[in-house]
Amino acid sequence: MPYDNSAPALGVGMIGYAFMGAAHSQGWRTVGRVFDLPLSPVMSAVCGRDPEGVKAAAGRLGWAAAETDWRALIERDDVQLVDICTPGDSHAEIAIAALAAGKHVLCEKPLANSVEEAEAMVEAARAARERGQLAMVGFNYRRTPALALARRMVAEGRLGTLRHVRVTYLQDWLVDPDFPLTWRLRKETAGSGALGDLGAHAVDLAQHLAGEPLAGVSAQSVTFVGERPLLDGQSGVRAGARNDAPSGARGPVTVDDAAVFHGRLASGAMASFEVSRVAAGRKNALCVELNGTLGSLTFDLERLNELNFYDNTQDPAEAGFRRIQVTESAHPYLEAWWPPGHGLGYEHTFVHQARDLVHAVAEGKGPQPDFEDGLRVQRVLAAVEESAEKNSVYTPIPGSPA
Amino acid sequence: MPYDNSAPALGVGMIGYAFMGAAHSQGWRTVGRVFDLPLSPVMSAVCGRDPEGVKAAAGRLGWAAAETDWRALIERDDVQLVDICTPGDSHAEIAIAALAAGKHVLCEKPLANSVEEAEAMVEAARAARERGQLAMVGFNYRRTPALALARRMVAEGRLGTLRHVRVTYLQDWLVDPDFPLTWRLRKETAGSGALGDLGAHAVDLAQHLAGEPLAGVSAQSVTFVGERPLLDGQSGVRAGARNDAPSGARGPVTVDDAAVFHGRLASGAMASFEVSRVAAGRKNALCVELNGTLGSLTFDLERLNELNFYDNTQDPAEAGFRRIQVTESAHPYLEAWWPPGHGLGYEHTFVHQARDLVHAVAEGKGPQPDFEDGLRVQRVLAAVEESAEKNSVYTPIPGSPA
Amino acid sequence: MPYDNSAPALGVGMIGYAFMGAAHSQGWRTVGRVFDLPLSPVMSAVCGRDPEGVKAAAGRLGWAAAETDWRALIERDDVQLVDICTPGDSHAEIAIAALAAGKHVLCEKPLANSVEEAEAMVEAARAARERGQLAMVGFNYRRTPALALARRMVAEGRLGTLRHVRVTYLQDWLVDPDFPLTWRLRKETAGSGALGDLGAHAVDLAQHLAGEPLAGVSAQSVTFVGERPLLDGQSGVRAGARNDAPSGARGPVTVDDAAVFHGRLASGAMASFEVSRVAAGRKNALCVELNGTLGSLTFDLERLNELNFYDNTQDPAEAGFRRIQVTESAHPYLEAWWPPGHGLGYEHTFVHQARDLVHAVAEGKGPQPDFEDGLRVQRVLAAVEESAEKNSVYTPIPGSPA
Amino acid sequence: MPYDNSAPALGVGMIGYAFMGAAHSQGWRTVGRVFDLPLSPVMSAVCGRDPEGVKAAAGRLGWAAAETDWRALIERDDVQLVDICTPGDSHAEIAIAALAAGKHVLCEKPLANSVEEAEAMVEAARAARERGQLAMVGFNYRRTPALALARRMVAEGRLGTLRHVRVTYLQDWLVDPDFPLTWRLRKETAGSGALGDLGAHAVDLAQHLAGEPLAGVSAQSVTFVGERPLLDGQSGVRAGARNDAPSGARGPVTVDDAAVFHGRLASGAMASFEVSRVAAGRKNALCVELNGTLGSLTFDLERLNELNFYDNTQDPAEAGFRRIQVTESAHPYLEAWWPPGHGLGYEHTFVHQARDLVHAVAEGKGPQPDFEDGLRVQRVLAAVEESAEKNSVYTPIPGSPA
Questions:
Q1: At C215, phi and psi to the nearest 5?
Q2: Residues D149 and D240 in one domain
Q3: Which string of DSSP letters, residue by residue, matches A139-163?
Q4: What's the domain count of chain D?
Q5: What is the ipTM metric for this complex?
Q6: Closest to C33 (Cβ–Cβ): which among D29, D282, D304?
Q7: By the CB < 8 Å criterion, does C339 face chain D?
Q8: CATH number for the domain that contains residue A89
Q9: Which of B201, B222, B235 lies closest to B18 in space, CA to CA?
């Protein structure tokens, strides 16, 4: 029984069903049960190359049909929106084809593995936009309620003039030198390492929260573990931990383990970034800090229901960082969830992403972040790589203010 | 399309669709998408008194049918398990009838509004048990992964001999004297106030984590705000905040705002409890601390993905409370979820509750906590009320070791 | 060279030179170097029974002379103020004699080991007060800047009407069953265990911060480790850890390891307390929480430079517990110390205590807490013991409002 | 009365008596009262230009004599050790002269305002070293017990191979554009701004904790507030807050408000730094994180009694950052202080610095950090400035491994 008979259906087809596919499925499955929506998402079909695997995934995750060829999926009549959850090397081809097929597109981040691909995607999205199709990139952390609140507060001027943006995104699953060589550790599939995986989020959040682009960066990156055990076919973070590769066989890691860079925002504020997958003890530590003349904000994804705010206009005798539990009905997305103090989890960002995209489709106006946002991030990542190769020299971001 | 064709169906019928009903629905909807289950839960029907309301709720929450009479619901052939999400005053009648109708039962906490009702429910459950039916009470916080890990560590002896159990459960939604008189503030519907609502969780967790019952208690309770605005029909925490009562009309609050009590566990360990709904700034602060001769554990529901452990066997120069992020695949329930550091939320406790209940039904062996656990809690709550009435004198718990 | 030639001298004589004596010495030595004082404290003489020990202590701690008989010390012409740092069993005798000898008195907490002694001390202090002498009891934690700020905020009405006071004071140095039987574990010297040692602070702070007395209490206490290794002569917490007792010889512990009690303040607010010296991992965890209708405050002595404030009058979308770093010049005592964020330590409470006492002596008024405050605490501790013996029955505090 | 008659005296003469002078005085006054020392520090004389001011300071801070000419002070017979607490522009001249006069020297950080000065100081120190004189630079934070413990743990190999060092040092006293133009904001007196003031600590700690030097850096720096109110004569952080400058008159700020840089350690580990005096809400937030293959450490000066340790060799199910309260007698410097959990403050770092320097003088072997350490820091700061001027290009540190 559909959860709202009066709302027209919006057929969704998803490509890829690993970690991201499972998370997106949870989003599509839940969104209409929690939020009032103008369209009713229907989980029409999922696509994967392995016939057995995709069929099982469809049954498990709740998709009505399974496809093994993404070209078939994007042509289905019961699919109006294509959700791309594959590794970055296939994003451009699929997204451009899906747009050409007249579908709306949601594409996982990073938008692409190169600026060139991202530019082609933006061009395709612009053309499709004129035909009424939408294209969104999956920077889901924007929709963590605490970060949505942060953006709202910055936009309201609560921080005054921004002085510093500081983002670190640290994980530790690559500390173990025997963690296997999954697709995330190969340049040809992942584009880059911690940079594209974690840095893409970090850069997007910095630009989004600040409300302005990076003008340039100075960077270094490093690969500490140069070779890792070979592994066939598997993907995902946990999957790899099982390490069922043949003993002894190792292959070269062709992406970075960590990257660090600093830059300037268009307004002159200072920005600093560090991303790593070898920071022991840091599991998913996306930490954001913004310092402005009127106040500061801090956030840690490991405590995602909290936003800390320092109000610099307060009496110094009573001022202090305030731990806001972002679980009030006055907070973004929270009117639909539980009472105060009953926190949400990681996967809820995908529910919120689905909610906003459905509204955008219904209203015919562009979802944020769009492919241009994705391209902007891609250009920063490219500048980071370029700077890292050129002795860390400050490298302007093409298209950004000087 | 069912998510697993090979697993036999388990039809679920739910009574009540407010806050708890929404949370349970999320549990039933999600559980089979995440966990491998021996039975496939089907959301057959939901029941509520208001025909329009229940129909809308069914559509929204994903139940296949709507009923307005719970007696009809428990008789449905497509319902094998009755999930009771109503206020406490109707638990006994519904649960006993559902068991008599041959159904498994999941009953929200507190089990009942009185020891007598709880005893009758236990008796019904015992009889039904012999017919192969199961009865579970919804102390969902046991299934917070961090608290499940805490229980595992206590059971493994990591704390040594227990000295202290300390539980406080603080909220603040009743600080506002104009918060309306919902069912939760009337003795005839809720049984008691903070005591039954929050204290039931606190007592169950203390006994569950310690692995032993309370022997007796000394208590006081208080109602700070004696009258509140009248309100028609609404329930739930957030609902009431809207306060659409006629101005001026007030009615008496007949339950406690707060209660505090201390007691002894059967082993001689000291236990202390405090519950309140008028603790400004505390949103859902269920804080647990266990101190043993070999170690200590602390937990705060406002940071539900974390468990803090002090290992007293370590070198003092390196000892300290350790913030365990309970998001590893080695942690309870986590093998099915996201990578490390990607936290879960409040509602996941209901997914885990559903998971364990489905396994229990399939295996025909009793789910924990059962109605006896619920009765044990009820007896403690009754002793708390008795002690509070009798000048806080130490009041033994009937059925517990002296 | 005296640090202020123009300020008249105030000769101080101290009795006892163990842990407390060292801390008080640090206070007397430092106070005039940091604060502007109307009198110039001079560390005239220290007293202890062991001639070698006290002489070494005088040299080490900076006292000009050493005495072995406290009666000699209180008669010295260069002593105007007697600072009593001995175990509780000698407080009454020394304080009364010192007052009779015309001296001002600072007496370590707890004021005495019994209500009777405390009453006699109050009587002596009253008589001395008419002769212009002052008597203060050493509840030094009142002078932690964060708690002084807390008191100021309560007095200013920032919390509104108080609902809850919650104090726990947990340590763990008695978890080890082989920690020796120091004077702190014998009723004849210490009066009680965790209760007098930690509970005295907890009760004084609760009454001081709330600005009102406890009306009555319901209590239990427990001794988990009944016998401990015998030890000769030593005192202090760390001293005992060395355990140089003859192997095998054990003696009975005659005080409590832990106590828990709840009560009501005169205004009807609820109060709860727990003190323990067997809470593994808790080193000096004096945690205070106050909840009022307009706001809440929390404090943890293990992070003594911080006070957390929840302002319930704020917009819920931005409300949260605020971590005030109590290191601003606008904070109590801080105008004399370091720049913001440069925290103080435990011993500074003794500097502040000395500062306020010197001012009181110069101005001939105050000081707080006086012996009446000490008696008030003693009466609560006695009621706690009485309640614990009488099945936890609610026991009114003599002299408090019903 | 000297606190230890048998220990030979070590006469100390201090130059400068503002913030740093007060902190050093507290160190010299306290050290012999707490620690067993081979020499007995005597506070012989203090020096400042203002005759009234220095006389008052001598009285207040406890120095036996006052001088107005530092050349006179370093010639005094009762001064064997010269403690330099002036702004950086006079360090070189005074230190070199004091060493030439045969004195031991303790010089506040940064060692100098330029590499050239620092090199001259190192040369003077080397020559003096052959005559048995010692020279130390005042990187006092090395002697925070938690950071001393951190260094010990790194040296013991508890972190394995280092991957990341991350240091941020944030304050906010310059957010206010009307904070006056004190000496700390002028290049001619302070050398640089946040960089020399905060960055010097950050760099020294990174190199000290890692046990290896930085090889090179890439940097940017910024001055957000270009002009500030003029002020006569005052110094210090709090002093300036009073702002008694004539209204309207402003002068140019010639130092940086903030700097950010990343680099590589000799071993190849990545290092990142950020320092700012305009980070609203950050009072004295010196945060350090070290990630190695076997574990990680984190520290925040705003909670200076705590060190957090993640032991990567532990069972993942029980692993987590451990909050070590660095107050155990097994911790560096703590055997002389209070019982566990009784924290120290900022000023104790100066007591510990004095302790170690007195031992070094007595034993005739070099104190750490010596002037070479100071020079090493100075070279990094110079490379930071050079890189910031040259488009952030990676700039090797002279004398460091490539």
A1: -90, -30
A2: yes
A3: -GGGGSHHHHHHHHHHHTTTT-SEE
A4: 2
A5: 0.94
A6: D29
A7: yes
A8: 3.40.50.720
A9: B235
